[in-house]
């Protein structure tokens, strides 16, 4: 079953059992601060309630949701997302759930690049270091059985990355370095691991939430 079918099934169960209501006072606060429309916030709230256990969304359910709906499967990046959004908590409130979806679907380019950089900046010191890039890129060489060979290849690759990104050649990739490089070549914005869903996924999910999914898109695999 493709992700469109899964999401449609989830929405169908929600709509059949939980009719849409007017926004309550808490949801109206989200409506003022978020990019989504009122109806999208309402539908996301219903999805949250369906996924919830005692009004809290567990990491496990949220991880499955992000994997199935947004095709975000990098465990290291998902854990970083949970740390930044969830602030170390084991469950997510409605506000944090909406904040995450808002960021994934509706954020501006500036918001996206700042958040992506924060995901990669594990040490939270405002710079990307070799060790941090090694953490994110190491999994891509898992097919190489010899650890020493894999590490050597990866270190050489990271050296090339620094030549590309480290504009002031201080041995660190600052946010300014990263931003300037991505402006020169936008395809590099998620080069250390996928943080945000691709454009097609974003379009389909937004279309589903606002009810504008075309027949052609419904059967797209």
Structure description:
The protein has 221 residues and is mainly α. The chain has two domains: 3-107 and 196-218, Recoverin, domain 1 (Orthogonal Bundle), CATH 1.10.238; 125-188, Orthogonal Bundle (Recoverin, domain 1). Helix content is 63%, strand content 4%. The protein is built from twelve helices and four strands, in the order H-H-H-E-H-H-E-H-H-E-H-H-E-H-H-H. It has helices at residues 3-17, 25-33, 38-51, 59-70, 75-86, 94-106, 109-120, 130-137, 147-165, 175-184, 199-210, 215-218, and strands at 57-58, 91-92, 127-128, 173-174. Strands 1-2 form a two-stranded antiparallel ribbon. A two-stranded antiparallel ribbon has the order 3-4. It is elongated, with a radius of gyration of 19 Å. The model is unreliable at 17-21, 27-32 and 215-221 (pLDDT under 50).
Could you list some keywords that capture this structure?
12 helices; two-stranded antiparallel ribbon; 221 residues; elongated; 63% helix; mainly alpha; two-stranded antiparallel sheet; Recoverin, domain 1; single chain
Low-confidence stretches: 17-21, 27-32, 215-221
Whole-number total of structural domains: 2
CATH topology assignment of the largest domain: Recoverin, domain 1
- What structural class do helix, strand and pairing data support? mainly alpha
Task: Determine the strand fraction and express it as a percent band.
Answer: under 5%
Number of strands: 4
Order of H and E elements: HHHEHHEHHEHHEHHH
Alpha carbon gyration radius: 19 Å
Largest sheet: 2 strands, antiparallel
Strand order of the largest sheet: 1-2
Intertermini distance? 9 Å
Relative helix content = 55-70%
Please work out how many helical segments DSSP would assign.
12
Global outline: elongated
Mean pLDDT over the residues: 80
Write down the oligomeric state: single chain
């Amino acid at each position: 079953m493709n992700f469109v079918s899964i999401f449609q099934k989830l929405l169908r169960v929600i709509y059949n059992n939980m009719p849409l209501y007017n926004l309550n006072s808490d949801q109206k606060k989200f409506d003022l601060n978020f990019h989504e429309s009122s109806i999208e916030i309402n539908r996301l709230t219903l999805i949250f309630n369906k996924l919830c256990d005692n009004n809290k969304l567990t990491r496990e359910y949220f991880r499955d949701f992000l994997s199935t709906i947004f095709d975000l499967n990098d465990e290291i990046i998902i854990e970083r997302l949970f740390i930044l959004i969830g602030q170390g908590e084991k469950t997510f409130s409605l506000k944090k759930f909406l904040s995450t979806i808002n960021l994934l679907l509706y954020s501006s380019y500036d918001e996206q690049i700042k958040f992506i950089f924060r995901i990669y900046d594990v040490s939270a010191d405002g710079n990307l270091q070799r060790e941090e890039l090694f953490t994110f890129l190491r999994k891509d060489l898992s097919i190489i059985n010899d650890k020493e060979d894999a590490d050597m290849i990866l270190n050489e690759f990271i050296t090339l990355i620094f030549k590309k990104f480290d504009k002031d050649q201080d041995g660190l990739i600052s946010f300014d370095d990263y931003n300037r490089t991505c402006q020169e070549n936008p395809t590099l914005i998620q080069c250390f691991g996928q943080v945000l869903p691709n454009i097609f996924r974003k379009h389909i999910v937004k279309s589903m939430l606002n009810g504008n999914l075309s027949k052609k898109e419904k059967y797209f695999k």
